[in-house]
Design goal:
Elements lengths: L2 H4 L2 H13 L11 H15 L4 H19 L3 H8 L4 H29 L4 H19 L25 H22 L5 H21 L6 E13 L4 H4 L5 H11 L7 E3 L16 H11 L3 E9 L5 E9 L5 E3 L17 H4 L17 E3 L2 E7 L6 H4 L8 E6 L9 H16 L3 E5 L5 E3 L5 E4 L6 E11 L3 H5 L2 H19 L2
Parallel strand pairs: 1-2, 2-3, 7-8, 8-9
Antiparallel strand pairs: 1-12, 3-4, 4-5, 6-7, 9-10, 10-11
């Protein structure tokens, strides 16, 4: 395919289709080889492209297809629950996907502009630029790293063993490197293909070997946990006439006498703690203490300055403690500058929140040191590392009812699996509508409740101690390797 052909519709449509198909690599489909195939298609197209602007078009088409297919569930939040008219909600989603597509677009354009050297060096450049694009997407404007390609490589992918070492961005870089090697290799010249094929094999075998390594160890006695899934419909949750129903529901579901730790989901009490009925908190506290247990529940807290925090608070046998969400969702939990008009089009309750302070210590509950993260926060792997090595368990509380019956719930559980692998800690999840689950440090899901069903998930878990390489280094090793690949490519290009 020539450069002029790339400017036509066929190559761009192929890139768009390849990006759209990438959704099948992620949960709930879990077809992890598809991620390799879609990146292979993009690299193959770029290898036949001569001009950076054509590379930009291909990268943009790939990204737009990937995000439109992968996060289309945002439409449900804006239209069905946010009250935004269908045309405006569709336009908002399209513009957001177009913004996200700029990252692979610029990576593709830079690749076409800077490529030089042999197959391995060009593949390293492609991978380095991919890592840079995904890293920036997870940081700029507070970041949106959902659908980072490395999330698709949970077990049984042979690359999953790299997650405790390089994290999700590093695995995404390896995936891009492997795809580019295959796309750039001159398969008709066997002698030139053999080194690339050998390198592919080494990466796969190394991933399988690393997957057998136990980076952290169980510590202490098992803890009996009860993770509550309330299944409160989003369209009813904030209606004043139903508040008493939700308070009684939470009171009943949290009555678990044979648990050491009971967890209710994010914002399970849809109001400020100041406005709870007299005696409600005391009832929860006295009952948990009578069971010699601890209870965690999601609620909104307000400080002396009137600032509102999305928080989870504890009651029961241990001293009362709380955690306030640090990484807020733009347009959902706060308004970015110059975007006040957005709230004139959408109706979103509790949308003027304040981020919690950095460095909040793990909560000391049920004999464990529990690092809390609320909903969207578990997308940011490096931000969870502050709690290590002190934390023995990770706990996510979420409310994904905003997104209805969609890919959001299984995709979020897959993100939790990656966090468990990166940290070497069990990840507990208590959610409103799903997916409430227990994830082990090796990324396996050992307990889970069906989506959109009310219930209590009971399990025994053990805290873990020790550090994975990723927990020690964070993303620095991955970014250093990406910088090295970029520097080598630039050096070879300067030498002509």
């Amino acid at each position: 395919m020539t450069a002029s052909g790339v400017r036509g519709s066929k190559a761009v449509l192929l890139a768009l289709l390849a990006g759209g198909l990438s959704v099948f690599a992620f949960a709930p489909f879990g077809m992890f080889p598809v991620a390799w195939l879609t990146l292979f298609a993009l690299a193959w197209l770029l290898n036949r492209t001569a001009r950076p602007r054509d590379g930009f078009l291909l990268g943009f088409a790939w990204g737009f297809g990937a995000f439109l297919a992968g996060i289309s569930w945002l439409f449900v939040a804006l239209n069905r629950y946010g009250g935004m008219p269908v045309p405006l909600a569709a336009l908002a989603i399209a513009l957001f996907c177009a913004y996200l597509a700029l990252y692979p677009a610029f990576a593709a354009a830079l690749f076409v502009r800077l490529r030089s050297g042999g197959v391995v060096l060009q593949a390293a450049l492609f991978a380095a630029l991919w890592v840079a694009a995904e890293g920036l997407r997870g940081w700029v404007f507070t970041g949106f790293p959902w659908l980072s390609i490395g999330y698709s490589q949970t077990p049984p992918s042979p690359l999953a063993g790299w997650l405790p070492v390089l994290g999700v961005y590093g695995v995404g870089g390896l995936l891009a490197f492997v795809a580019a090697l295959a796309a750039f290799a001159p398969w008709r010249r066997l002698r030139e293909v053999l080194p690339a094929a050998a390198l592919l094999g080494v990466l796969m075998v190394a991933g399988l070997t690393l997957g057998r390594v136990t980076w952290t160890q169980p510590d202490g006695e098992p803890v009996r946990v009860a993770l509550v899934q309330t299944n409160i419909a989003q369209e009813l949750k904030w209606r004043p006439e139903h508040v008493r129903d939700w308070l009684e529901l939470n009171l009943n579901l949290s009555d678990v006498p044979d648990a050491d730790l009971v967890v209710l989901p994010e914002s399970t009490l849809p109001m400020l703690a100041d406005n709870l009925p007299a005696g409600y908190v005391e009832t929860l506290a006295s009952r948990a203490a009578a069971y010699d247990a601890d209870l965690l529940f999601g609620v909104f807290l307000r400080d002396a300055q009137g600032r509102v925090f999305n928080a989870t608070a504890s009651l029961g046998a241990s001293p009362a403690q709380s955690y306030a969400k640090r990484h807020l969702v733009p347009f959902g939990e706060y308004s970015p500058p110059l975007f006040g008009w957005f709230y004139e089009l959408a109706s979103i309750p509790m949308s003027d929140q304040t981020p919690g302070p950095a460095g909040q210590p793990p909560l000391q509950l049920a004999g464990q040191r529990i690092a809390i993260n609320i909903c969207y926060e578990d997308l940011f792997g490096r931000e969870l590392l502050y709690a290590l090595p002190e934390a023995s368990l990770m706990l996510n509380v979420s409310n994904l009812a905003w997104y209805g019956h969609s890919f959001a719930q299984p995709q979020h559980l897959q993100i939790a699996r990656v966090r468990a692998l990166e940290t070497g800690r069990p990840m507990l999840r208590a959610t409103n509508t799903g997916m409430t689950a227990v994830v082990q440090p090796d990324g396996t899901v050992t307990h889970a409740l069906p989506q959109f069903e009310r219930g209590v998930l009971r399990a025994e878990v053990r805290g873990h101690v020790g550090l994975t390489p990723y927990a020690r280094w964070g993303d620095w090793l991955t970014f250093a390797l990406a910088a090295l690949g970029l520097a080598l490519a630039l050096r070879v290009r300067r030498r002509g």
